[in-house]
Amino acid sequence: MAVNAKKIAVYALVVFVLYVIITDPAKAADYVQIGFEGISDAAKAIGTFMTWLADGAQN
Asked: What per-residue confidence (pLDDT) applies to 30?
């Protein structure tokens, strides 16, 4: 039962994404840019944290 619900949720998400892309490509591009900026910021924060740890966790 849970597998079927998961499949339905994935299909619904795919249909929604396709709908947004087809009806408003500019807004879809903005969403993608926001997502990549978030991933980039997260990677920078992890890098800063790892550098801080490698430096002995000093302030």
From this structure: 92
